[in-house]
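This entry is listed as follows:

___
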Amino acid sequence: MQQTGTAYTPGEIKSLHLKGAMYIRMSTELQVESPENQERAIRTYAAQYGIEIIKTYSDLGVSGINTEKREQFQSLIDDVEQGRSAFNIVLYLDESRWGRFVDSREADYHRMRLERKNVLCQSCEKPLTLTSNIADRIMTLLRDESASDYCRQLSQKVWVGQCNLVTKGFRQGGVAGFGLRRMLLDESGRPKQELAMGQRKSLLTERVILMPGSDEERRIVIWIYDQFIAGTSETEIATQLNAKGVKTHFGRPWSRGTVCEVLTNEKYVGNNLFNRTSGKMKSRAKPNPESEWVRKERAFEPIVDLERFYTVQGIYRERNKKTTDEELLQGLRDLYARQGRLSALIIDEADCLPPSSLFRNRFGGLLRAYQMIGYTPEHDYKYIVINQRLRALHAEIVADVILSIENLCGRQIPIDHKSCLLELNHNLCVSVVISRCFTTPAGTRRWKIRFDNGLHPDITIAVRMDTRNEAIHDYYILPALEFSGGQIKLSEDNVGFLDSFRTDTLDYLLNLSVNISLDKAVEDGTRGNSTYFH
């Protein structure tokens, strides 16, 4: 629908009798009037151009940073791409309602998915002309980047505000824990009420602190510390608590892990801790080094005295001292002799051994440690060995691609060592993924290609392995403009659209990395023999 040329007048647009859909989004459930206001503004805008609204998509109380939980947004895209829509224009209040994506290019990508199906995306903050020009494109991109930058700045401001409140002794989310309660304070710092599990504050000026629970729970917490100091293991403590009918703060039976939580968390001595893990902008949470933790000491009334607490921490430090490989393997043999089998859970629940993660890091995986003590698991874990070999192959392929490009172009190719993204010509990001072959129960061979959308590569190189997952079968060079889903499945023969992206070598990709002069590009284009594409 969108064309270049003279802009349509409102009267000309009315004569087209367009049918439209509206998309409404609000970020939090507290914005109760926002959907109604958005709908009113969109309908007023539609009436100016004679657009009949025939469908409404609403994501209420959902963040616009990504599309994962925006079910109606996904339905909108799916309806258009699957040909189930009867409208030819989508209206939304402004670019921020379309989304505040971390990568502003994602907003334009989703608009393009609709426009490829002749469905126009239109913000109500600009006039409708049914034409496209460079000025409109630039303004839209600037609004997208502004919405994205707003999210980044807001995330940083919220984080700084949370750190400031923590240093003042106020709790920033999370359950209280066994033996503790959450107390709600008013803006003057006076107690208002105790918050039950799942309850939250309702006013921005209110604050939350921790306070000791019932006398009985306090005695149990101190008993746990005393038992551990006396030499009782966490598992034995959990067994005794369960025998007495004592439940955790979630109302569940005790385990070694829940006992460890009570024995190691500083909140039981009144300290307020924050930023032990972080996951900004809806990213995956990761642990932070202790130097980045935010701590306020003596923020709450303690349950356990410092002498007890640090005695327990000393026992844990002594237990986690460096152990030799042979000592670890002997401990694993002894555990196998007692249990008759081994697993990560059995190792984690064993008081005499460190966590299973230490065995993975020390011996390169639990299977390797099992082999060293002569233990063979009942399950077939050959796929783990294959995956380990494929991970090594991935590094080799990336290194070969870089070497080939550098030999061809005579310049160094930047690579992000954390994400393994290659950067070509300073603006084209390339991701390499390995697709292993697996056989279905019917005997047919299949390959799955998983896209790492969190990295936002411009091109994904899918390396398809042979039937034994030992050598490269072929390649698929997949641009993000065509492939955006979480994964695609391939069979042995993929005719039509998918097969147009298949190649036996990476020569096409290598040609993309070559810089040529503008004059030569024009000359080659004139002859109709363009060798390189940019």
The first strand starts at residue 19 and ends at 26.
